[in-house]
Every structure is written in structure tokens, then in C-alpha cells.
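**Polypeptide and fold**
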Amino acid sequence: MTLHHHGTAPITQDVHQQLRDRILSHEVKPGERLVEDDLCALLSAGRTPVREALLRLQGEGLVSRSRGWVVGTGAPLAVRSIFESRMAIEGYATRLAAERAPAEALQELRQILASMDAAEAVSRSEVNRLNQIFHRRVVALSGNAYFVEQHERTQFQYWSLRLPVIFAKDQLAHSATEHHEILAALEQRDGDRAEALTREHIATTMRIVADALDER
């Protein structure tokens, strides 16, 4: 019994990560009800790990309880508020990453950007996926778990808004250039520049989204 209890932690962690990924990718839609028995079957996990994962997701603001578990909608947060949060969290996290990231992790970031640069050979959804991975990895390299958690929440809130924004080819090219500049600052261990570039990168995206919404 003791062995089973101690073995629950990694199982719960895995269930939590799987559920979080499904929510953030919209495989599980905002407002959708989550039934514990269904989740147990879907994730091949016991009731305890599933319940613990749901409680953790509730603490992160991704699900709520209303006569059962419900995926959050993110509706209360405005677009500008989301981007301002990203600027604050991701900007400072990138500064810390410049100080703390090991060389092999920066090489991994370079490989992610190389895959994104081959945009003609991959789908737009794959570019979006790689973009999210790049930003998520940079935040993780800050070494601050609270930043990682808050960044995930802003990402969730952003995608929950279902914004009808399609980035033009020149905008994507400019974004790619900014990614490379951020990575260069990380490799040079220049925290000031890494933070400034990241904040400007997010501000640029915010302007594109705001302009698109004004045209609706």
C-alpha cells in the first residue's frame, strides 16, 4: 500500500500534464464538462490521480467547479490585459534565462527556430505549435516554476478568446527575425537586451491583434 501511495505522485503529474495539454490545445473545449469516470478511461488512470490533477488545474485557473468540473472560458480577461501579463512575466523570465540557461538548452531553442524557418515545408498550425514551444521553453529556462505556471495561464486565456487573427507572411517573417534576435541575446547572456526584445516582440503581436479586432 505504501509503495502505491508513493507511486501516485509521478502518475498524477503525468495526468495533470496530459489534461493541461488537451485544454491548452483546445482538444477539450472551453466550457466543456469534465466527468471524472470519463477522464479515468481516457487517460488510463485511477480516480485519485485524476482528481488530484483536476484540483491542481483548478488552482491554476484552467478548470472550475460548477455542479461538476468545467473547463474555464477565459472570457473575463481582455486582450490587452493578457498581453500586458505576458510582457511582464515573459519579459523578466527571458532576462533570467539569459543568466541561467545551460548552453545545450539554447542549442535546442536554435533547433526549434530552424524548424520554424522551414515554414514553407510545414503547416501554419505546426508553426504555431513550434512558436508556443519556443516561448514556453524560454520561460522554463528562467528556472522559476511560478513564471511557468502564470505563462501557461496567459496562453490558455489567449487561445480561449478564439481570436480571428491570421498573420500575414511579412508579419510572420518579422516575428521570426525577432525570435532570432531574442535567442542571440540569450546566447550573449545579455539580460537587458533579452528582456527588452521579448517585451517588444509581444507588444508587436498585441498591435497586430488589436488592429485585426478593430477591423471587425
Notes: The chain has a mean pLDDT of 85. Strands lie at 33-34, 63-65, 69-71. Residues 94 and 209 are 23 Å apart (CA to CA). The chain has ten helices and three strands.
